[in-house]
Design goal:
Layout: E1 2-8, E2 17-23, E3 26-32, H1 45-48, H2 50-54, E4 64-67, E5 70-73, H3 76-94, E6 99-103, H4 111-115, H5 117-124, E7 129-131, H6 138-148, E8 156-157, E9 164-168, H7 172-175, H8 185-194, E10 198-202, H9 208-212, E11 215-217, H10 224-237, E12 250-251, H11 253-259, H12 265-272, H13 276-288, E13 293-296, H14 298-301, H15 306-319, E14 329-330, H16 373-378, E15 389-393, H17 397-400, H18 404-411, E16 416-420, E17 433-435, E18 456-459, H19 475-486, H20 495-509, H21 522-528, H22 534-545, H23 561-565, E19 571-575, E20 591-592, H24 596-607, E21 617-619, E22 646-648, H25 650-656, E23 663-668, E24 671-679, E25 687-689, H26 704-708, E26 735-736, E27 738-741
Parallel strand pairs: 6-7, 6-15, 9-10, 9-13, 10-11, 12-20, 15-16, 16-17, 21-25, 22-24
Antiparallel strand pairs: 1-2, 2-3, 4-5, 4-17, 8-14, 18-19, 21-26, 22-25, 23-24, 23-27
């Protein structure tokens, strides 16, 4: 019998509402939910393929446990027994830091991934934490931490009201947005143009987004921070600074002007390969626009000066008076945020509270660089124990981290490894235990992380569209049992994890003077929580304590889980609103425009004025029908434009003797790969582009469709030594490579631009 059910799409950051068609317990169709308060019916090819993703026959259905060197199907009890027997001896013998945790990007797309990993990290007490953030967005977290005192206080462009949008290193027509949650990002950009607004795109490739723009600047890769610094210089030099009402919330304005004094358009133009007059025009247009927003993403983060570029994005919004202003860049307010505290000085943000053992990389936001994971496993030093056990949750670092070959070997040397993953992939094939979560239709969904980055305040929650199949275990229960097994409480009721978190949270809330439940009995509050299970009770608690919550009765019209369930298409909480100074947690209580770590890194940026690539440089690219390495096993989302080809400009192809469609070898510091050439003038001369997430050709995996067309792992071209020093983020763009036709005679040198 056919029926429909609502589900928020978990396949990218746009978080669109879906209406699923379900026949005999299987998702047979997906379309946009026209009544969704946020996405209003928009759906992209990934969302439309939800049923194919959900029913992929290669998804694991039961746990796997390694016996006599081979992974075999096991019961859930056997699997968690093996986890406890594998992790606890490592902790007891070598200490908690000998257990590493790797969290992949999909964690922020699930309720379980948001609620339970923090408890696991705290329970183990390990500092060996690695996540996908350090191959993606960590520079933005660090710059926000230094500017605003909170690494998660990330302003987003007010897309629906801005008059002028400057995008740098972002391609939202393919990515659907990133660190900016906006269903139908393409439609919002077209609406900007239709209302007479201006769109400028800075990108070394003529992307689909760039083709929509009023102006496209094909900047030389890796020079984003220099370009933005020159624009800021012009604002100071020509008296165009106007922070407006935010002036009283700023400190360091004069020091910032002095720090940027020598980074003139004329000084940076040769390095950026953008003429000085154009840079001056960019600055004047930003300053003259009634409202404007600058937005930078992965292309400006995964470069040698990623933190400086991320910092300068917000600096430009601040200097033009567009930070915390409608039509500019504002701080979203999610329903599960903590209730706003009174404005005033906070604890601030610190870097380098500890360091990695081998290369002494400083931590950032409690994390070590994913690029350092292999050496933290395979390199002995006098500075503590190597990582001997690993917990990987929704992570495939063999493909997503630099030098996957080295990491592949390092994972094979571990004493123990457990993966929470629906697939036997390039990373989980090394695990001693694989714990497979159910398909997304069988899981509840609320976007904890993405609502803090949304272009409109709203709240939505969907319960599982399909009941758990026999033999499956809810992802929330899997992670709760993993926490118990890893922290010495194996065999306890998994509900104890949620009860512990609720008790701790409420006990803290009643002690906070600004809390709506100050002075109340936490046990009484816990008894008021509703929900079908522990995760729902935790969601109810967070909603009630949040900025729109009922405060456990303090505001009878406030938000609760029951109210949210009564609105299956979500609740609109209104447009983004100015919030300063409340979000600031710096020690000064102000926006600190020139933090010391930033000032200390500026000489490195000045040194880049004289740097020029000696040959070809590599950049990545996104595909609309892909999300990192997740979806290459779904036939509906591969083929067509979603192919692993090397883009290179016709001039470079002619010089190198490369023909369109023929295989080429690409060589970098970490190794070499082979991919078909795609000759196109969409990439500027001197630049080649290869997408990420491919390389599905290792033995022992069970992803049949992906293995049939494996593609090349672009991160194998990197050796992991290039990092942004402030954030530990891997440098993935603007790195030198050499290219030659595969048919070139043995011993022939690789081609490079001279």
């Amino acid at each position: 019998m056919s029926r429909t059910a609502l589900r928020i799409c978990p396949l990218c950051e746009a978080t669109c509402g879906l209406t699923l068609t379900i026949d005999d317990g299987r998702v047979t169709g997906a379309r946009g939910d026209r009544d969704d308060v946020f996405s209003k019916g928009f759906v992209c090819p990934k969302g439309a393929a939800f049923g194919a993703v959900d029913s992929d026959p290669d998804r694991l259905r039961t746990p796997l446990v390694r016996v006599d060197g081979e992974l075999r199907e096991a019961t859930w009890a056997e699997a968690f027994d093996a986890v406890a027997a594998g992790i606890r001896p490592v902790v007891e013998r070598h200490g908690p830091h000998a257990v590493g945790i790797v969290l992949g990007n999909p964690n922020v797309h699930t309720m379980a991934g948001a609620l339970y990993p923090p408890v696991l990290i705290a329970g183990l007490g390990t500092r060996s934490l690695f996540t996908a953030s350090t191959v993606d967005q960590m520079p933005k977290h660090v710059s926000s931490g230094l500017l605003f005192g909170d690494a998660n206080a990330i302003p987003v462009p007010d897309l629906d009201r801005t008059d002028h949008l400057l995008l740098i290193g972002a391609n939202p027509l393919e990515s659907n947005g990133s660190l900016c949650t906006a269903p139908d990002f393409p439609g919002r950009l077209k609406a900007l143009r239709a209302r007479g607004g201006t769109l400028t795109v800075i990108d070394p490739r003529r992307t689909r987004t760039a083709r929509l723009a009023d102006r496209h600047l094909a900047v030389r890769p890796g020079t984003d921070a220099l370009l933005l610094a020159a624009v800021a210089h012009v604002l100071f030099d020509e008296g165009l600074i106007d922070p407006g009402e935010r002036a009283s919330h700023l400190t360091g304005l004069d020091d910032l002007a002095a720090a940027l004094r020598d980074l003139t358009p004329e000084a940076v133009a040769p390095a950026c390969d953008v003429d000085a007059a154009t840079l001056r025009t960019l600055a004047r247009e930003l300053a003259a626009a009634p409202t404007a927003a600058v937005y930078g993403r992965i292309g400006s983060c995964t470069v040698p000066h990623g933190t400086l570029a991320s910092w300068l994005v917000d600096v430009l919004n601040i200097l033009t008076g567009n930070l915390d202003r409608p039509g500019g860049a504002l701080f979203p307010q999610a329903a599960t945020d903590r209730a706003p505290r009174p404005a005033g000085p906070g604890r601030g943000f610190a870097l380098g509270r500890w360091h990695s053992r081998v290369s002494r990389h400083p931590e950032a936001k409690g994390e070590l660089p994913l690029s350092a994971l292999a050496e933290e496993i395979d390199t002995p030093t006098d500075e503590g124990e190597p990582i001997r056990a690993l917990v990987a949750v929704a992570a495939n670092p063999v493909l997503s981290a630099p030098d996957g070959d080295r990491l592949d070997k390092a994972l094979g040397s571990l004493d123990f490894m457990v993966s929470v993953d629906p697939y036997l992939n390039e990373t989980s094939r090394h695990a001693d235990v694989v714990l497979p979560p159910p398909p997304p239709a069988q899981s509840p969904h609320h976007d904890f992380a993405f609502n803090t980055l949304a272009v409109r305040n709203q709240v939505r929650y969907t319960r599982p569209a399909v009941p758990l199949e026999p033999g499956r275990m809810a992802e929330t229960e899997i992670l709760a049992r993993l926490i118990l097994a890893a922290t010495g409480m194996h065999g306890a009721d998994p509900a104890a994890v949620d009860t512990m978190v609720i008790d701790q949270t409420l006990s803290k809330a009643v002690r906070e003077p600004h809390s709506p439940v100050h002075g109340r009995d936490p046990k009484e509050l816990a008894a008021l929580l509703t929900g079908a299970d522990g995760p729902e009770r935790r969601l109810d608690m967070m909603l009630r304590l949040g900025p729109y919550g009922d405060g456990f009765g303090a505001d009878p019209d406030g938000l609760t889980l029951e109210e949210l369930l009564a609105h299956p298409h979500g609740i609109d909480l209104g447009p983004l609103r100015p919030r300063l100074p409340q979000p600031l947690k710096t020690r000064s209580g102000k926006v600190e425009l020139l933090p010391e770590p930033i000032a200390a890194d500026l000489p490195r940026l000045r040194a880049a004025l004289d740097e020029r690539p000696a040959g070809l440089v590599l950049v990545g690219r996104r595909h609309l029908r892909s999300n990192n390495s997740w979806m290459h096993n779904v036939p509906a989302l591969t083929g067509g434009s979603n192919r692993c080809t090397l883009h290179l400009h016709p001039e470079d192809a002619e010089r190198l003797g490369v023909r369109d469609g023929e295989p080429v070898r690409i060589k970098g510091a970490g190794g070499e790969v082979t991919a078909p050439a795609e000759v196109t003038d969409a990439v500027r001369p001197g630049v080649v582009s290869l997408p990420h997430g491919w390389g599905h050709d290792r033995p022992g995996t069970r992803t049949r469709h992906a293995a049939a067309d494996p593609g090349a792992n672009v991160n194998q071209l990197l050796d992991g030594s290039l990092l942004d020093p402030l954030s530990g983020n891997a440098v993935l763009n603007g790195v030198p490579v050499e290219v030659a036709p595969l048919s070139a005679a043995a011993g022939e040198t690789f081609g490079a631009l001279t």
